[in-house]
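Private note to self, pasted from the team thread so I don't lose it. Backbone tokens:
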């Protein structure tokens, strides 16, 4: 044992350093939150509870029942039941989400070509029964009204892609001029 190590052991240098660090934390602001009392502000785009987007013109769901959301869902928690309408269009009879199976990857939101499903910023939905968390079409529409509403329209307009403008040919893009390729002339 060297003299330096002996002095450190006799004067408890490490213990004094540790106590000084502990004492310094008494006077700093804590980094933890007192959760139920202090709620965190959620940014738009948070992956919380599911919602079906309501069409502002009709007041019904925007979903057309294409089933892309259910097809891409890795946890198979989305079920879409459709029937044929009077004008041979698809009518969504039931749209169900088993929230307890969902992994909140948001692939369903990305896959939907109509922007008909969204994940709301609401994250406090614990319950004692599974039925209370099993989302039906009506509950999903209520979620849209409760947790997204006007912010939901702004969310899709501001943050969601792709938009029609993204499918146009950018200026300066090299193209074959004067030739028709696959029905398209540039």
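Design output:
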């Amino acid at each position: 044992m060297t003299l330096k190590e002996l002095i450190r052991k006799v004067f408890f240098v490490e213990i004094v350093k540790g106590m000084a660090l502990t004492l310094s934390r008494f006077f700093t602001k804590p980094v933890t939150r007192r959760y139920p009392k202090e709620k965190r502000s959620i940014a738009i785009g948070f992956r919380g509870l599911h919602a079906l987007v309501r069409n502002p013109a009709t007041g019904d769901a925007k979903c057309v029942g294409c089933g892309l959301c259910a097809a891409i869902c890795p946890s198979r928690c989305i079920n879409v039941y459709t029937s044929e309408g009077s004008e041979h269009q698809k009518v969504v009879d039931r749209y169900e989400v088993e929230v307890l199976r969902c992994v909140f990857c948001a692939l369903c939101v990305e896959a939907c070509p109509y922007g008909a499903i969204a994940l709301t910023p609401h994250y406090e939905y614990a319950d004692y029964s599974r039925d209370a968390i099993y989302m039906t079409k009506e509950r999903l529409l209520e979620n849209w009204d409760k947790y997204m509403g006007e912010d939901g329209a702004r969310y899709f307009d501001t943050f969601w892609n792709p938009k029609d403008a993204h499918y146009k040919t950018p200026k300066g893009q090299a193209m074959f001029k004067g030739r028709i390729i696959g029905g398209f002339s540039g």
